[in-house]
Amino acid sequence: MWAVIPFKQIQQAKQRLAPILSTEERKFLSLNMLEDVLEAATASEVFDGVLVATNCEEAAPIIRRKGVLHLQTSEELGLNHAARQASNWLLNKHIGAMCLFPADIPLAKASEFRYIVCGHSVHLGMTIVPSLDKGGTNCLVLSPPNLLPFCFGADSYAKHLKQGLKLNLSCRTKFSDGIGLDIDTPNDLRAISMRPKQTLTQNYLEKIEIHSRLNQFFW
Question: Are the C-beta atoms of residues 169 and 187 closer than 8 Å to each other?
């Protein structure tokens, strides 16, 4: 099984954090989160390979430093397009399973990836980890990688489950505290700032004094 992490152009990243973070700060936040996620994925030692699907030049040094594969995506056409492109690449390499997750889950732990991957023992099926609010899909394990159409976006957790049931697949839901927290909104920043500090992302947020900004924003 391979891990796949689609990564957007950082110029377009995290627009919903604009009331609190500047454009440059959102760029640095995105890169720190990518590095945290890659660290957890590689440390888990459950993946035969790790692939970042992106055409973001700023991400390339991190990808090289972590020693993972860089799949250059053709255009910035969104997460579903990047997921399809990555799954096609895996199929062409005769790789039978994929664990796909975004780069904005910096609290993901190696132990969580081990738990999810080791629990996905089916030859033909899907394991899904929803976001903490059960709206989004924060991790999707598919065997084979093109098992179903990708439905990332609003309500993707329900949409992926619906696709799986429609195709009569083996579908498992796993819940994960770290993987479940994706950083998209000021509320998410507040949530991560309240967790024990253990990541580059949290160190960066502390450096830019996120606590005082959040206090002003939510006042």
Answer: no
Are the C-beta atoms of residues 202 and 195 closer than 8 Å to each other? Answer: yes
Nearest to 50 by CA among 32, 71, 29: 71
Kindly report the CATH number assigned to the domain that includes residue 39. Answer: 3.90.550.10
Q: Which pLDDT tens digits describe the chain residue by residue (219 residues)?
A: 999 999 988 887 899 999 999 999 999 999 999 999 999 999 999 999 999 999 999 999 999 999 999 999 876 668 888 999 999 999 999 999 999 999 999 999 999 999 999 988 777 799 999 999 999 999 999 999 999 999 998 899 999 999 999 998 888 999 999 999 999 999 999 999 999 889 999 999 999 999 999 998 888
For β-strands 137-143 and 125-130, DSSP reports them as antiparallel
Q: Total domain count for the chain? A: 1
